[in-house]
Amino acid sequence: MIDPRFITTALNLEGYRIVQHCGVVRGIVVRSRSAIGNFAAGIQTFFGGNISLYTELCEQARQEAFELLRQHAYEAGGNAIIGMRYDANDVAAGVTEVLAYGTAVVVELAGKPQKPEKAAEPSTPTTETTPSAPPQL
Predict the structure, then answer these.
(1) What contacts 28, CB < 8 A, 6 or more positions away?
(2) What is the pTM of this model?
(3) What number is the average pLDDT over the span 111-115?
(4) Which CATH class is domain 4-109?
(5) What Å distances lie between residue 115 and 18, 19, 75, 112, 118, CA to CA?
(6) Is the distance from CB of 25 to CB of 101 less than 8 angstroms?
């Protein structure tokens, strides 16, 4: 599964180089509100302010869509997601679709060479202080 630290709304991942694009990926969840939930939310609406029952429903749907997005990106061969976005639409009365989408990519540390043209001379090992690369697939 894709590490959430390697998911961004930006079109690049700072400190990493994109070495492969794996395509558009998504996670879709369709949720309905129960009659009891609608009644309780109606009472909250009467008093004004944040409607916590709907907020909780939206948060749960977004989290599910996010997890499905991570799984889809992993299955597509990526180790990161760029350009991640959410979208939500009413499909029918009381039924909402939440979509999380982005582009699955394979990234590696920016300083890491892709493929050396000739063998390098052996050198003394050094300790790197850069953050670790995302898991290789």
Answers:
(1) 65, 68, 97, 98, 99, 100
(2) 0.72
(3) 68
(4) alpha beta
(5) 14, 12, 25, 9, 9
(6) yes
